Amino acid sequence: MLTIQLINQETAFVKERLAVKNFKNIELVDEIIALDADRRKFQMERDELQSEMNNISKQIGNVMKNKDFAAAELLKKQTTDLKEKIKEISTMHDNALEQLNAKLVLLPNLPHASVKKGFSAEDNEIIHSEGSIPENSSLLPHWDLTTKYNLIDFELGVKITGAGFPLYIGAGARLQRALINFFLTEATKAGYIEVMPPLMVNESSGYGTGQLPDKDGQMYFVTEDNLYLIPTAEVPITNIYRDVVLKESDLPIKNVAYSACFRREAGSYGKDVRGLNRLHQFDKVEIVQVVNPEKSYEVLEEMREYVAGLIRSLNLPFRVLRLCGGDISFTAALTYDFEVYSAGQKRWLEVSSVSNFESFQANRMKLRIKDTDGKMTLAHTLNGSALALPRIVAALLENNQTEEGIVVPDVLVPFMGTSIIK
Question: CA-to-CA distance for 148 and 421, rounded, in angstroms?
């Protein structure tokens, strides 16, 4: 959430950066400023009335000492009237504050200065490309390979649950487990502390990281318990630090978690959803950092290189994109997407996003840092997929297919227990 101080003091800048994100409701900024002015006016009026009532209360004590009961009664009548006025003003203040907060959560984060205006994925900037793209035109797509080697049963998943909930079998299940173990092991080596979070979160957690209200329709909701199935482990991990004051010596905080992820993906259709390309339930290893604001962009570049190293170790051709304003998420200030090449589908598949949210999530969560002088500042939060499994699996199967079977990357062999899937 943007701070009200920034909106009031840098109004033109806020509007200009929101336009880069193609935010349509720019007038919301002026509505927020007006509501904050009302809130501050009511706060001032309430404080003045409270001060007046305090002074009268002191006078009552003095006149009671002099046994001037008539004067005391008049003063008591004034305090009664003041209490009613304070109650009325307090109601007006609370209403303005409620409306203000309801509108503040509708404003997206401001994009970083390096984020260019654009409208869709076609406007994203490729900043790095690495690896050789297979040229064999006869390579099979992963949905044919999973059938050939009995790795995933999509139809049984439909029978048990519905479309987008695949059933992994035998070597397919072991490949999932091998990737999860490899990613967690590498993250631990890099200094991330592993956590195993809940797979459901409450409404406060959804608001804390910005999924609510922005992505309300994309999240699975358990109505009777008012809980949401997590779309990513980012939500429960980051909310560990909601309403927390950290010391500078606590930073950086580095967490990693494996979890299942659940996304409704409403409106998705066509070739992009076939096989593992887009699922309602999938596995992912997530990394999250909480850092000092002065270091967050340095940390973002470190996280970017870390994810690149994971993909590099799997011998997959990949590229890194800096997202344009129209493709960046509601909460992010700057995002790098990673795509691997799918040899069977002959297209690029997104497998990770690494983002800096600056203080946007921290402001929503009241996540602050106290320095040695006692000064408070909002922390910066970052996260990244390291990695999401479905499209990694798709690319591994397609790019490593041979006449003898699917070759397992060397780094996965210790976890997989075999060097080839037959």
Answer: 11
Question: For residue 94, what pLDDT is reported?
Answer: 96
Report pLDDT for 5.
96
Tell me the HSE value of 269 on the side-chain side, using a 13 A CA sphere: 2
Q: Check residue 357 and report its DSSP letter.
A: -
Which residues, at least 6 apart from 286, have a Cβ–Cβ distance to it below 8 Å? Answer: 232, 233, 234, 237, 256, 257, 258, 259, 383, 384, 385, 386
Q: Give 268-280 pLDDT, tens digit per residue.
A: 555 577 999 999 9
> What stretches in the chain show pLDDT beneath 50?
none
Extract the tokens encoding 251: 């930073």
Name residue, tokens 């997202």.
323
Buried b (16+ CB within 10 A) or exposed e, 265-297: eeeeeeeeeebbbbbbbbbbbbbbbbbbeeebb
What is this structure's pTM?
A: 0.92
CB-CB contact of 396 with 420 (8 Å): no
Compute how many other C-beta atoms are within 10 angstroms of the C-beta atom of residue 70: 8
